[in-house]
Design brief:
Oligomer: single chain
Distance between the termini: 44 Å
Shape: globular
Number of strands: 14
Helix content: 10-25%
Structural class: alpha+beta
Amino acid sequence: MNTYQPQSSAQATPTLAELPFDAAEHFAGYAVLGLPFASGHYLAFRDFPVSSVGPGYRSVWHRTPGGEWTIYANTAPEFSCARYFGSAVHHTVETDVDIQWSGPFTARITVPGAIDWRLELGTSAATSMLTAMAVRMPETLWRNELVLRAMGAFAGPLLNAGRMKVSGVVPNGQTFQAQPRKLWLVTGSQATILGEDAGQPGPLEVQDHLADFWLPQRGLFGAQVGVRFPSTAPSSAEPASERTGRKQAA
């Protein structure tokens, strides 16, 4: 049985000096890997206080029912998720992003004037089993592409989350390896997005993805999450900033 709690696990983030050293770009923290709503809205959250490329950051991703993506982040795009996903989104907004825990399994995420999002988290046999495996997995296996491909193929159906990949290529061209060591389900959620109630959580009619990053069809929360970008290939896509008038990562 998984006895970990999301709040305490989220706060147990290593320092940059404690991460394995190599030339890749590294981030560490915790995240709502994704949460779909039956209305077609989609939300995700990242809190990565540890970054090898600049200041740590928080971000919220929002997809409209029409498939338009916005990344809200509390630091410049070149230091946040837009560094890797910017060419696939329509808007990037630099703004405050906050999370408040009201208990070990409940949290509220806010973006002023845009998003008010409440979460309830819980465990399942699948999340407990995957967590027990992940916390014991040596670092060498977290960098083995064959292992990571197998993990994604195994975890998606087990979690009833659709297709999942923990390695591949992001929209801006870099390769990624994600290391979610502790997992929980989102068991309840209510969100107001730009004044509109997002409705009930539920899978999208068609699962969405950003390059090789597939958005889970079920709400998942991960703590002690590491993300490694072994490659720093630049994007050849036109920066979205030229479409939105906002600064965008290359």
